[in-house]
Amino acid sequence: MSLKSSHTFSNIMDNPLKVTKSLFMSRMYHWHNGDLNKVGIIKGVTASLWKVLTQLSKDSIKDLLIDKREVAIQLATEFKNFLRIESSKHVPLLPIPLSDISLKNRILLELGTRYLTYAGDIQENPALSREILKTRSKGSDSGIRGTLSKLRKDGLIETSDKGDSITIEGLMELRMILLRLNEEYQQKEGAI
């Protein structure tokens, strides 16, 4: 069974039901006129429909796939006017005091910034040591340990021999944090 010339692959993908209906109606016309047998119609339409649906399913699933670097690039693009990274120490810079941010969010911000510099080929390692996290976040030793434990349990960070690093879920959480912080900042700026 072959498709009409108007049924290109892109037409099938853009409107699979219209193409399938067209194929079915074409086969019904030929069947009605005695040109095809019933089995040929059913097999042809079923095979066409199956091919279309299978390809749609695969493409839909492929559209959902994303990797950590891609999330980091989207994050950098979305927040380039809100989040900046200091060029020598690679620390996050926001137009709000970092001391106003909770320890959990500050750690995610530090680890997210570290991953952004890693994804941008500025750093060789996506992880930060506990000592650096403690210094930058200004948290107590027990506060840092407890927060890291909770973040690890929630799947937002992972630990290796090089230190702690953010996961893709952590980057997505960081996006939500930055959205909220940016919104709060915009509201404060608008009120002034």
Strand and helix layout:
Layout: H1 9-14, H2 16-32, H3 38-64, H4 68-78, E1 84-85, E2 92-93, H5 103-119, H6 130-137, H7 141-153, E3 157-160, E4 163-166, H8 168-191
Antiparallel strand pairs: 1-2, 3-4
Helix pairs in contact: 2-3, 4-5, 4-8, 5-8
Which features does this protein show?
192 residues, elongated, Arc Repressor Mutant, subunit A, 4 strands, mainly alpha
Largest sheet: number of strands, sense, barrel closure: 2 strands, antiparallel
Strand content: 5-15%
Kindly report the average pLDDT value. Answer: 81
Q: Catalogue the unreliable spans.
A: 1-9
Shape: elongated
Number of helices: 8
**What is the level 1 CATH name of the largest domain?**
Mainly Alpha
Q: Could you give the order of the helices and strands?
A: HHHHEEHHHEEH
- How many individual β-strands? 4
User: Termini separation (Å)?
Assistant: 70 Å
What is the spatial order of strands in the main beta sheet? 1-2
Proportion in helices: 55-70%
Which architecture of the largest domain per CATH? Orthogonal Bundle
Strand pairing plus helix content: what structural class?
mainly alpha
